[in-house]
Amino acid sequence: MIWNVEEFTRAAGATVERLAAYVDESQRGLPPVIARRPPGELAERLGLARWIREGGMTPDDHAGFLAAYLEEGTRLHHPASLGHQVAAPDFPAALADLVHGAANNPMAVYEMGAAAATVEHEVVRWMLEKAGYGAAGGGVLTHGGSLANLTALLAARAAGAPDAWTEGVPGDLALLAPASAHYSLTRAAAILGLGERAVVPLETDPLGRIDVARLPEALDRVRRAGRRPMALVASACATGTGLHDDLRGIGEFCAEHGVRFHVDGAHGMSALLSDEHRHRLDGVELADSLIWDAHKMLRTSSLAAAVLTRRGSDLDAAFRQEASYLFYGDPHGDGDSGEPGGRGIDSIGRTVECSKAELGLKVFLNLAWRGERGLGDYVARQYATARRLWELGRERPGFTFPYEPESNIVCFRYGTGDQLEIRERLMAEGSFHLTSAEIGGVRHLRATVMAPATDDKTLESLLDQVSGCRTQTFGST
């Protein structure tokens, strides 16, 4: 059935109108930040069974459905949204999603989306430059940081065990990572055939940061056990705490001892755009590979993540397959050689995905609207707001903070009781969305400052609500 363009125009107009109102009321803190109606009740309210069976939705029906749908979700633009490391997306990225939804150019093969492939190619070039990688570097955008970490470790496996793709994974490979590393690293080790037991925990300080001074004994222990280190993983910043490993110290150790170095910079890599905070990433250029999520601090919608390698050939070696309907000609090069059809910037040889969304367009449009400086200013502001929470909270009795924040992630405790009960109370009320993390085996509340609307009034209200004063000062009716 061909598109009814008039119907699309009406439905799209209603969608934009409803979304604009949704973002506006969310930014002003008017409705609850989170809704958690039971699934059965929610399905009934949305009329899911009827629409699935009968169809027939009209633009007017769609407008009503969308209003109810948005009311029942989590409002990431809300000042009280302090939960997960997911962007309150900027509107240029939302426009990119609309374009992709209509055009649908899965661009891992250039001929399926020449403009999309070229945009991603240039965005990746920009990211490589910011990371300090030279012209020999390579990269690709993926649907999320977990897939980016998996891709980076595939490249590490190819470097350490070149025959693994055809002959299987040798049993002596090891992955060195702190216990504070993102869960996707252990998951990737299992997917890659190493097994979870191949992940060797590194010694850390009490806050979970890699202890550089103890790396020699860790490496010696691994090698005496008859294992080869496939890669050592550091965090910039750690998911739980927002704290950074010493990238320069770790990078220099890895270079000296011939160990491949990977940096999980999913959240913190955007600090490269901030003059005030880029020092946190000193030494990242020493990494053999890194990941960088745009759907966190570059404010794109989910998902858009980069995996970058200091040598593009490492990424090309990650996948070795034959498929005559896709792989032909020369897939390498920089795309400027004048090769017919643009085969030089096919990304299919560097990623799990073939039908890959137009991810680069989201990053590009945010850059085109805000510029590097605008995005860097956003990073600096969110980091400053997190620090402000730390400053305000330390002045109040009953609050304890285990560290001074280095990013926009802050962990804290109130009193000695069950912190998860506090979190559940706030979420049941819809007043605040917090997450939680363990530090040194002790459960803490965790705030991640992502929404630009979060300000001092929000933070004071949060501290009041956590302590039981139950004062809410943001928003108005």
TrEMBL record:
User: Annotated Gene Ontology MF terms?
Assistant: aromatic-L-amino-acid decarboxylase activity; pyridoxal phosphate binding
* A single GO cellular-component term on record: cytoplasm
BP terms from Gene Ontology: amino acid metabolic process; carboxylic acid metabolic process
Question: What is the originating organism of this protein?
Answer: Planomonospora sphaerica
Cofactor dependence is on: pyridoxal 5'-phosphate
User: What name appears for this protein in its UniProt entry?
Assistant: Diaminobutyrate decarboxylase
Q: Which family does it belong to?
A: Belongs to the group II decarboxylase family.
Q: Which residues carry this modification: N6-(pyridoxal phosphate)lysine?
A: 296
Give the keywords, sorted: Decarboxylase, Lyase, Pyridoxal phosphate
